[in-house]
Protein: GNAT family N-acetyltransferase
Organism: Solibacillus palustris
Amino acid sequence: MDKVVLENEGVRLRPVDLTDIEAITVAANDVRIWGHMSVTLLDRTAVENYVQKAIQERKQGISYLFVVIDKQTNTLVGCTSFLDISLPHQRLEIGATWYNPSVWRTAINTNCKFLLLQHCFESMQLNRVQIKTGHENLRSQQAIERIGAQKEGILRNHMIKKDGTVRHTVMYSIVMDDWQQVKARFLDQLL
């Protein structure tokens, strides 16, 4: 996948690079972010490993990590990714998204998801984008449903969390046939 930069009036998404380590360390330094995530980025070493792994996986075509820049403040406020990329099957997953709590309940996530989905369906011509979250992460489930993704079901005992407990995974998708309706919903929210 070539260098992908997506932006609108609210956010700029661009590929992560080594120069982002300091800004990610600052944005990620809040314990509230990490309760439902598979990683914890509360120190510089963890962030360095996270960025280096993301760059390697991008080169391998496995995943594509974007940094999220709030254009109002020109500040890095989080990250989001394309995961489980399968171009032969014309699908991928949007996930591993985290934001600094200062932008929770703002238009940042809505802008990001719109840009990512628009790129998936209009530029990449994918057939399917999936989004998943943990069964206990009700805030994330509500956000996913608010953008118009269809709940497909729950994968029971799907993952082991950092603390060793079992997570059931709630699966959602948007398919190409849904895109125009989902896009209209986004445009109503973003105007």
About this structure: Residues 44-60 form the longest helix (17 residues).
